Amino acid sequence: MKQDHVDKVLAQWQACRPELDCSPMGVIGRLSRASRIVDKQLLRAFKLHDLSAIEFDILATLRRSREALTPTELYQTLMLSSGAMSTRIDALVKRGFIDRIASAEDRRSCSVTLTDAGKALIDQAVADHVENERKILDPLTADEQEALAGLLRKWLLPHEDSDS
Q: From residue 26, how far is each of 3, 5, 90, 152 by CA, in Å?
């Protein structure tokens, strides 16, 4: 099998520190490099719809929630600050993709929902996003993708608990 960049780094460490087991670098280094490659390819697809990654996430969260959400629910789901969420919501309202709905109980509160234009945009963007992800994963068979997803889930579960 052909060597990747990480194999070359590991070989260099083996040559200068043969007593050190650097095998964890192989996994973490590949995860890191894969993350950067995937992020770049995802961003390229979002830009085709004139969306940033966070705008895509906001619209997709509203779409899959199938109900209006408060800005607080959105920023907690997407792990953004409230200020950053307000800025993004303002921009998406101006572009006609989401609406703010004032709360009948608390005039300081509102919820956010997709407009018809926002729903149409995110439906197309998600379809293109899934196809883009399919192409990204194309070097792996369906069984390999399933195995990788399972291994990543196994690794993520204990780390997500500590990330909160």
A: 12, 10, 43, 15
* Residue 107's pLDDT band (cuts 50, 70, 90): low
Classified as helix, coil or strand, 114 is strand
């109980």: which residue's tokens?
A: 105
pLDDT digits (tens, 9 = 90+) for 30-61: 999 999 999 999 999 999 999 999 999 999 99
For 49, left (φ over 0), alpha (ψ -120 to 50), or beta? alpha
Q: Tell me how far apart the alpha carbons of residues 12 and 22 are, in angstroms, rounded to a whole number.
A: 10
User: Measuring CA to CA, how many Å separate 3 from each of 9, 11, 47, 144?
Assistant: 10, 10, 32, 19
